[in-house]
Amino acid sequence: MKQIGEILHENLKKYFGFDSFKGNQEEIITNVLNGNDSFVLMPTGGGKSLCYQLPALIKDGTAIVISPLIALMKNQVDAMRSFSLDDGVAHFLNSSLTKNAIVLSGLSKTVGLPGLRCGWLIVQGQALRDNIMNWKFYTSICPPVPTEYLATAALKVWETLRDRNIARIGQNLELADAFFARWPELFTWRRPMAGSTALVGYHVPSVRAVSEKLAQEEGILIQPADMLGSDDQHMRIGLGRDSFGDVLTRFEDWLNRDSAGKP
Hints:
Elements: H1 4-16, H2 25-33, H3 48-58, H4 70-82, E1 102-106, E2 119-123, H5 126-136, H6 145-156, H7 158-182, E3 187-188, E4 197-202, H8 207-218, E5 223-224, E6 234-238, H9 244-257
Antiparallel strand pairs: 1-2, 3-4, 4-6, 5-6
Helix pairs in contact: 2-3, 7-9
């Protein structure tokens, strides 16, 4: 008979692709699975969602998560559904799901085809849908026929593309783990719970200044977080490209040569 620790790690790998837990996640989840009440305080990025997601996936029945953070819960449900083959793995219900609600989706993150620049809107209300279509007629938003053809073909094999993308992201996460472990004083690295991007703390006076110098000298692009409405001490990186390892090596070579990338 399998021990609880073995079951936890098997399901952690199966559903999330991780080999190990963060902080005291395993202790918290074990306590939940043992039927005990749990009061947990964790910082942003500490991995709170996994503490209720994994028990819900392991145990029979239905888990109900109540949260005032509508956008955050929507993102978590979308991530769970994109990384699971089980149609019943997660659902989202909130007061914003009305006939005026609009759901935006595309082929960029989950299946790893950002180059197609193709997505879609799901709109329940007929009047709102007609207004959107009417507005579209006054714009130049019209994808070329090859894009529509490739997008249709991609949707027919989306599971294959998704699995390939997940494998690529997993490999790149391992490269990122090793890279940031070599630079603990320069970066604050937190593995993303899901998705293909990460926000990394970069301990320099200005990430924007470093990003501009890095782009000019090496042709390497990192996105300063102040472009996303955050501060200038974080950078956004993408984990979904085949060239990630090569770019990371070039970035590290530059860091070893140039003091501008260091405090």
